[in-house]
Request: fold
Amino acid sequence: MKTFYKLLAVALLTTTTNNFVWFALTYWVYLETKSVISTSTTGGIWLVTAALSSIWFGAVVDRYKKKHAMLGSSVATLILFIIGFIVLKTNPDSVFTSVNSPTLWVFALMLLFGIIAGSIYQIAIPTLVAVIVPKDKRDRANGMFGTVIGISFAITSVASGLVLAYGGMYWILVTAIICTLIAIVFLSLITIPDDKVKVAVSPTHSAHQLLQDGHLPRGKQIDFKGTIAAISAVPGLFALIFFTTFNNFLGGVFMALMDAYGLTLVSVKVWGILWGFLSFGFIFGGLYIAKKGLGNSPISTLFKINIVLWIVCIFFTIQASIVLLAIGCLIWMSFVPFIEAIEQTVFQKVVPPERLGRVFGFAHSIEQAASPLTAFFIGPIAQFFFIPFMTTGKGVELIGSWFGSGTGRGIALVFILAGLIGLSVTLVARKSNSYKLLAKRYSSA
Reply:
């Protein structure tokens, strides 16, 4: 557990650094271009790249020592942040003010790829939990990891807004480069017990037999086919992944439009400070899991939480109120760690350790592949349909008297529709047989 705590410290530093750059970049491109298309495109690029890289990251985590995988990702992040810094310093400010500027997107891509490189920690740490943490403490360890993510958001949402407001992207990148260097040094000093799971099995065994025996061949490649076989061997596991995928499909709405909506209500400084406060929801949720665990029926808990979240989504933008938005976001963030911890705990219990990195990678890839579709399309749809609809269109006549009108109201309407769809799908999925089978398998594992 001491090693796990040290890894949590490294994860906190790297996640905070990457989120620090992510928040700042999202704020910065919107403030520079004044277009929600820029934020939706930035979010879409990030999600597409994350989705495409996750399967490969999972294979890297399974094939190599996880410490080496994490070190390599931090070195890549450092190099890409340095390149972004050079692009920023060698070009005039005017080239970053248009969505059509190639230089703007070269700069954004360097930072986005640097952030993506660090996402291997999201696969490596949960995989290590299955190796170095006792079974009866894994759900609590996942809660601690969720707490780390929450602390990261709390720090970065405030810091990004303040540093961006007073120092610009220059100091954002200087800070990120220094912190990434510190993380590399710190991680290199941690000794992790042999974290590369080794198994020797007959190649004639079927994937299902190997899974039943607790073993699957590692393989030298990504082994997409073997990963699919490992997931298929657990009844309901694909259903869990696809349910999360659908949630992320709707979640793309939040990534594309939340900052734009918040900035219609308050200044960037207030928005950054508010997100710092709201991010404590992640911490509260993670700490609760770390202390109490997830109980005996995490699958049932998953659906109950989703019902609450989508109801919140329907009502937290019903009026143009920063107080209402803040309350809804706080509830949302308090429950998000439960969703992450439930999926991680289920994977760690029903999937063999030697295949766990690839299964995590596959899940990340599939789940995140849905959001880019929303993020890419919802920005233009909001810009050219919903915003005009609630600014000068029929929406003003139909519901403007009580709902309000303007840019923010158009964005709010998108959130409400996403909540209605999410609630409907959750209620239907809750009754399906696949999740009952997965819950039974989890209990008997």
